[in-house]
From TrEMBL:
Belongs to the glycosyl hydrolase 18 family. Gene3D superfamilies: Glycosidases. It is an enzyme of class 3 (hydrolase). This is mannosyl-glycoprotein endo-beta-N-acetylglucosaminidase. It catalyses: an N(4)-(oligosaccharide-(1->3)-[oligosaccharide-(1->6)]-beta-D-Man-(1->4)-beta-D-GlcNAc-(1->4)-alpha-D-GlcNAc)-L-asparaginyl-[protein] + H2O = an oligosaccharide-(1->3)-[oligosaccharide-(1->6)]-beta-D-Man-(1->4)-D-GlcNAc + N(4)-(N-acetyl-beta-D-glucosaminyl)-L-asparaginyl-[protein].
Length: 276
């Protein structure tokens, strides 16, 4: 990767030019050259969508040449699907094999990100830990590879999942959308006993068309909590892992509900701010 303090961004697949070249105005091969991790956020993009061929043939090779890792994101609900992936050792392995054989290996991706935003039952918790342990043989710091295993969440370290999976993951991405900077240290403190600061990566959201008003970044993209998060470091003297953005394809010149081309001005500026 390119930077000590990583910059990562979730790219919404349904807004890629390959998905709809008439409506959409940006593509993954236009992402900034100093981006460390590009996260594929695949909604409304079925397997026969042209996006996937572009990802394989154009985007991944291009991003790899820039030193950018490409990671696929899936919601935890897929992992917890007990119909297709029963809560048995064979069912757990079936899910891991599906992700590896459908996404990681054929697309030459660099990792997997689990989107976790809800309370788990004890059975769901145990299943998730067991599946992550299986993933850790292929991805993450225990795998002996350079491939990434990430959990992104809006929850705190009080959730028992993080204590058990902390050693298995490269990064914990905290969805800090709309939060005040004053909340950052208390949330970080809830993780720090079992998660090194270098694995803790807060994130903000660009404005999505007709989406929530998080107001994480000013309209001119020169100020806002995105910059506060970029400057923030834990009060215990540790160094955070970096920063991520959601809807990086909306790093656009003005706040609007229209679909316009991204210029990635803020992404470049925030990356440089963290890595002078």
């Amino acid at each position: 990767m390119n930077n000590e303090n990583i910059m990562a961004g979730y790219f919404r697949t349904w807004r890629d030019k390959a998905t709809d070249p008439v409506i959409n105005k940006t593509a993954m091969n236009e992402l900034p050259e100093n981006l460390d991790i590009a996260l594929v956020f695949p909604v409304e993009t079925p397997p026969d969508n042209p996006y996937w061929q572009a990802l394989k043939d154009i985007y991944v090779p291009h991003l790899h040449r820039n030193g950018t890792k490409v990671v696929i994101t899936q919601g935890i609900q897929g992992l917890l699907d007990n119909i297709n992936y029963p809560d048995t050792p064979a069912g757990h392995q079936k899910y891991v094999d599906m992700i590896m054989d459908t996404y990681i290996n054929p697309f030459q991706l660099d990792g997997f990100d689990i989107d976790f935003e809800r309370t788990l039952t004890e059975a769901e918790h145990r299943k998730t830990v067991n599946v992550c342990a299986l993933f850790s043989k292929h991805l993450g710091p225990l795998s002996g590879t350079e491939k990434l295993l990430i959990i992104d969440t809006n929850r705190t370290g009080a959730d028992p999942l993080f204590r058990e999976t902390g050693p298995m993951i490269n990064y914990l991405f905290l969805q800090a959308y709309g939060r005040s900077l004053g909340q950052m240290d208390p949330v970080y403190n809830s993780f720090k006993d079992f998660l090194p600061a270098r694995k803790f990566v807060p994130g903000f959201s660009f404005y999505e068309e007709r989406g929530p008003q998080w107001n994480d970044i000013s309209e001119d993209r020169n100020s806002g909590r995105a910059y506060d998060y970029a400057n923030w470091q834990p009060s215990d003297g540790g160094r955070k892992g970096g920063l991520f953005s959601y809807a990086i394809d909306r790093d656009i010149p003005r706040r609007t509900d229209e679909i316009i081309a991204a210029d990635y001005y803020a992404t470049r500026k925030l990356t440089d701010l963290m890595n002078p």
